[in-house]
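Bug report

Summary: C-alpha cells for Protein NDNF differ between web form and batch submission.
Environment: batch mode, default settings.
Steps: 1) Submit the sequence below via batch. 2) Compare with the web form result.

Sequence submitted:
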Amino acid sequence: LRMSWFWIYLPLHLLMAACLCHSIKTPITSSQQSFKSDLFNFYHSLILADGKETTIHLMKDIPKRYYFVLEEGRALAPFTITVTPCDVPIEWTILVHKVSASLLGKAAQGDHETQEVSKSQKAPSTVSTIFSYKGNSVETYMGMSSHSALYMLEFLSTERDTHITVYLTTDTTSGHLYPELPMDPRIDVIGVGHTTVTLTWKHSPSVLQHRENIQYCLLVNEKHNYKSLCAAETAIRSSGMKLPPTLALSLSPYLFEPQQVMILSNSELSIINKASSGEVRQICMGTKNTYTVPNLSPSTQYYFDVFVVNLLTNASAAYTGTFARTLEEPEPKVMQLKDGKVIQVVLDGKKQKLYSLQYQARHKKIQFTFQLCRGQVRVHITKNGRTVALENISGLRYFSLKGKLLDTYLVQLRSTEESNSSVKVQVSPHFHKPLFPLLPESLKIKSFSKLRTCNSVTIAWLGTQEESKYCVYKKRIEEDQVWMELRSVDRCSGPESRHKSEKVLCKYFYDINLQRAVTTETIKGLDAGTLYLFDVYLFGPSGIPVRYHSKVVKTRKKC
C-alpha cells in the first residue's frame, strides 16, 4: 500500500465529475454534504503526510480539514491514524468518499468520456463517517481499505485555541513511531513515606527490543494527571514556566530559564520547573521501571505520569497515570532545655517546620534569651498551654516571665523566610549572671562621609555603662558581593571565624553617661576607590560576643 496523489493532477472539473457522480441519490448528513462541497477545493486543500507526525493549530470554533488518498493496491490495505490533543478536549471525525477505480481511470481520459460514463454506467459513489471522537485522550484509529478512496479528517476545538499532533501511516511493516505500551499500562504505587513515593510499572515491549533508543520519563505535579507529554508541556508553559519542547526527554543542551533547576545524578536527569502555582518535575531514569521519588512534602497529594520515549524521534506513549498522598509529618520531637545551657537551632525555611523546646521551671522567675544568627524567626512561648509571648525577633531578645514552680514552658520556633534561619536559645533563672553582654540602644555602625580619604575611613558605634571589649575587623569586597555578604552573615559567629589578617584592633571603653558612650576609630592603610566591610564585636563578662550590624564603606577614588 502506498499513498497516491494522482487525483491532484487531474483537471479540476474532471475530479469533481468523478467524485460527485450519482452520489446525491443517497441521503447524507450535513458533515457529508460539507465533505462533498470541500471536494471542489481539494486541489488547494491540506494534504496529510504519510509516515510523519504533523502538528496542527486549531482556532476556537473553526473546523480544520486535512485529506489523504488510499489507492487500491491490494485487498484490505491497512492504515492507522493517531491524534494527540495537547490541551483541551477536541472533536475529530474521519469521513471517506469511495469511488470506483475504473471510473477514476476513465475520468482521467477526458471530459467527453467522463460525461458518457456518468450517463450510462452510474458508478457507485458513497460518503460515510467511519469514526468520530470527542475528548482529550490519545486516540488511534486502525482501518482497512479495499477501494480507492479519498479520506477527510475534520478537527474542531470548542473551548479555546489549541494544538494537536496527528500521525498517519500506511506502512505497517516497519517500526512504530510511537513506543509500545504493555498489555497492562498501569503505574503501581508500592511504597509511600513522609517525603517519598515508590512507583513501578511493566516494561514496554519497545524497551526490550530497542533498549539503547528508548527510556522512561516520569512527570510529578500536585494538580492532575496528563494523558500525553504534549499536554504536560502545554500546561507547564501556560502556568508561566518556559519549557523547551521535550527538554527532559531529548537530553538536548537547551539553555535553562531562571525558574528551571536541572539535576543530573546517577544517570538520572531531573528538571524542576518552578511557578507560583507549584512545581512540576520531570525525571528521566533510562530503562529502570521502578523509581522512588524523593524530596516530596508530607501530607500532600501528588500525581504521577510515566512516558516511554523514543530518543530518535522524541515520540512518546503515556502509561495510565496514578496518584498518591504522602504520609502526615510526625509530631515534632521536643527538646528539653536545661538551666543556663545555650543551644543553636537551624530552621528549615522551605518546609516551614516548627522546632519545639520544652522547659520545666524550677524557679518562679525565669528569663528566655534569643540571639538571632541568620534570617528571620518567629517565637511562640506558652506556659501550661497558654500563650505568654508571640513575636518575630531580631538581634538579641529577652523574655522575663513569672510563674509557679514546675510550670511547663513550650517554645516553638519557625523561620519566616524561605531560606534557612538560625537562632541561639537559653533559659536561666539567674538574672544577675547574664549570658550575653549589656547591649547599647543600637547595634548600628556609623561612617562619616566627610572624613573619608583615599586610604582611610572613620567609623563610630555606641557603647554601654559597662566596661566591655570591642574588636574591629575589616574585609575587602567587590561591588557584586555586597548583597551576598550582608545576606549570608552569621550574626552569632565570633572573631574566631575571621581570618587573622582581617583584624584591625581591640579596645575597652565605657561611660556612665550614656549620652557620651560612643567611640570612633579611623582605619588607615586602605586602597583608594575600594569597598570594605567593617564589623564590630562586643564581648561581655561571659566571653560570648555580640556582632554589630555590618557596615560597607568605599574609600575615595581621588584625593
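Above is the batch result. After comparison, the two runs are identical; trailing whitespace caused the diff. The two ends are 89 Å apart (CA to CA). Residues 177-242+278-330 form a domain with the Immunoglobulin-like fold (CATH 2.60.40.10).
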